[in-house]
Each structure stands twice: as structure tokens, then as C-alpha cells.
Amino acid sequence: MTIEIFREDAYAKTCTAKVVDADDRGIILDRTVFYSEGGGQPGDTGKIIAADGLAVTVVGAYNDEDGRGVLHVLAEGQSAPPAGTTVGAHIDWERRYKHMRMHSCLHLLCSLINGGVTGSSISVEKSRLDFDLQNASLDKEILTEGLNKLVEGNYPLCSSWITEQEIAAKKDLVRTMSVKPPLGSGQVRLVHVEGIDLQPCGGTHVRTTREIGRIRVSKIENKGKHNRRVNIVFAE
Fold first, then answer.
1. Three-class secondary structure assignment of 29-40
2. What's the pLDDT tens digit per position in 10-53?
3. What CATH number labels 96-234?
4. Domains 3-91 and 96-234 agree in fold
């Protein structure tokens, strides 16, 4: 399995790694800074550069369906360096950092809306959460004000780990109704926004809420009888 550096250090932009497997689907490294798609957050893009200077473009990162680790998918027509090659893995940091800011803000949004999360999507331009709400009304301006108050509060974000048995016994921690927390390793990662939000999450996040920057709720949509979709964008 690939050592996932991004789980412990979301700010790591590059690392040295070794190719452990390569085929027409992509490259498996022994360690990586590339976030693998999950929880509504896209996989990272970037470059993998061999010691001889040969560079290949990574257009996505996913959990390999065969359980080998993180699969780094290459741009069409590019050839993977062979197994055993030492390489440098370099993410597109500007894109990743926007994902981190967006993902962290969605945790703040969860703290403002009392409802189960039925869906999510994160991108550099906009992000959204879907909530299971029966009789609640949502106001764009009130949510925007609430989010920016939390952003300006400069609350720290941190993570910890609990066992899968513990998370099974604490069902109230899980806000997502359609997606289970990442399971299978024996432990589950919790993301804390100090005093604001606590829930299982495998994504990448900023260190403090002020890094998110000003946010605007751009649209609230009805997506079914009980489903309300809240879209957010960066105010800048």
C-alpha cells in the first residue's frame, strides 16, 4: 500500500518516491503527496519527474481497484517510468490549496445546518453540500454571514484517529448519509474545527479557518422533497 503523506501533512507539495508498479492504467508509488479522490474532493494533479529529468503529467489520483495503493493516472500518450525508478512527485499546489480551503469551509457549513449530508462536491470554482431537511428554510445571506464569522474567528483545525469500533459506537459523529467514512484500515480519521465541528473525514484541510478566505453562498436549490443543495464560492 502507498504511504499517504497527505493524511498527516496536507501542506507537503512534493516527495521522493519509488515506482512500485506501472501499467497502462497509471503509476503506483511507495509513497505520495497526491490526494486520492474521495469524500467529494477530487484527486490531485501534477507531475512525476524521474532522476534523468523525464517528466510525466498526472491528471488524477484514485484508490487502485486492485488494492495496490494510490493510482496516479497519466495524461494520454505518456509512458510510465518502470518499476524501481526513483522519482519526485509534485502536486499542482494552487489547485490543491483551493480544494483544502473549500473542504474546510464545508465543515463550517455543516456546523450551521442541522441535517444529514446526502451529497457533496468540491472544486476550485465552487463547492456544495446536499442536506436532508424536511421543514427547514435556508437563507443565503444568513448562511454567508455565519460562514464568514467562523472564517474570521480563526479557529484551528486538527485531526486525530479513533478505531473503527469506536466510530461504530458513536454514530452521531457521522453526518454523511450516503457515504461511509473511509474504513478498512482499523482506524478512522476525525477532523476537528475547534469548538465548531467534529466528524470523520479523509480529506485535506487548512490549519486555521482564516486561511479559507471570504466565502459567499451563491445558490440554494431544492433537489427533491427533502433535499436542499447549498452552493458556495470564494467571495474574491
1. ECEECCCCCECC
2. 999 999 999 999 998 999 999 999 999 998 999 999 999 998 89
3. 3.30.980.10
4. no
Between CA 206 and CA 208 the distance in angstroms is 6
CATH classification for the domain delimited by 3-91, as one of 2.40.110.10, 2.40.30.130, 3.40.190.10, 3.20.20.80: 2.40.30.130
> pLDDT tens, 102-140?
999 999 999 999 888 999 999 999 999 999 998 778 999
